[in-house]
Amino acid sequence: MTQDAMPTARQIALAHVVVDIERTAARVGWDHAPTLYALVRTQDFLQHDGLPEELVASIRAEWDGSPEALSAIIQDDLDSDDLENVLGHLAWPPTVVGAALTVERVIVPPEVEEQAPKDPEEAIAFISAHPARTEVRLAAGALRSGETWVALRARPFDSDDKVGQGSELAPGLTDALLASLTQD
Predict the structure, then answer these.
(1) What is the separation, in whole angstroms, between the first and last Cα of the chain?
(2) 19: closest CA among 146, 155, 134, 161?
(3) Mean pLDDT, to the nearest integer, of 171-178?
(4) Are 90 and 177 in contact (CB under 8 A)?
């Protein structure tokens, strides 16, 4: 999203749920497998019979009544190997309006990445051992309507007030989430 564009109600709702997912992951801690979430409209979710009363009360207490508000339903932990490919082969029912994912990665400055060996296994070992590496957690979300949002927390700055956010932070990951939402 450019700075000139005003966020839509859907974009704001997505940003809220992605940040909430990231904060929940932060409470769980680091060194966790990628976790997948289905995103559903809160008003629709609350209409399901059989939800525990405590859950309904908790959701209603935090819900502002907006029809765009989203709730995240945890699915499964995923294998981090070839995550984008796994996401590309998922299918969601029509009641799921979006998908989100938390994943941890090791990043390095571009100049270090350029120095990495061409062999993928050697490159992983090189980057993982490099002194300029930083561990990050990404919480990424996408809606069927095309909106995306990412919250990024770096392990050295593990604080709720130091989480970066934006729609363009992890385009490969958000594109894979969008692909999982297309009807083929």
Answers:
(1) 27
(2) 161
(3) 88
(4) no
Burial of 179 from C-beta contacts in 10 A (0-12 / 13-18 / 19+): middle
Could you give the CA distance from residue 111 to residue 105 in angstroms, rounded to a whole number? 18
Q: What is the DSSP letter of 105?
A: E
Contact 79, 33 (CB under 8 A): yes
Burial-class residue 112 by CB neighbours within 10 Å (0-12, 13-18, 19+). Answer: middle
Helix (H, G, I), strand (E, B) or coil at 95: coil
Place of tokens 């990628």: 34
- Token pair recorded at residue 85: 């490919």
- Model pLDDT for residues 77-103, shown as the tens digit of each residue: 776 666 766 777 788 888 899 999 999
Residue 104 pairs in a beta bridge with: 137
Cβ-based neighbours of 174, under 8 Å, separated by 6 or more: 140, 141, 142, 148, 150, 167
Q: What is the pLDDT of residues 127-141, one digit of tens each?
A: 888 888 888 899 999
Q: Note whether 102 and 22 are within 8 A (CB).
A: yes
Measured CA to CA, the distance from residue 99 to residue 80 in angstroms comes to 17
How many CB atoms are located within 10 Å of the residue 26 CB? 18
